[in-house]
Amino acid sequence: MNISKHEQRVLHVLAQGGMIRYLRDAHGKVIEVDCYNRDGFRLTDCSLSIFNRLRRRGLIRSMAGQPYRITREGLAAVRAQLDNR
Which InterPro entries does the entry link to (predicted)? Predict the structure, then answer.
């Protein structure tokens, strides 16, 4: 699967225990996303377009209204990074 550099960075943060919190409008459409790593710091590379691409490919998923987390397919697609750069 062809995954961009920014998508890899977001998936790597999620694979280490991070999450994507989202905000919906009155119609139920996601309008804002924030990606946090396991320490609670915000990742600035996560945009709405990257979020939509990851969700459409099935690499991230939300269960029962919880924040979005990585799926097994996402774990298989992410490449290992030595020093998180």
Answer: YjhX_toxin
Q: At what angle do helices 5-15 and 48-57 cross, to 10 degrees?
A: 70
- Cα 82 to chain centroid distance, Å, stands at 19
Domain span at residue 24 reads 5-77
> What is the total count of domains within the chain?
1
Q: Is residue 83 part of a domain?
A: no
Residue that is written with structure tokens 């490449």 in the block:
79
Q: What's the pTM value of the predicted model, to 2 decimals?
A: 0.88
Does residue 73 lie in a domain region?
Answer: yes
Q: Is residue 84 one of the residues assigned to a domain?
A: no
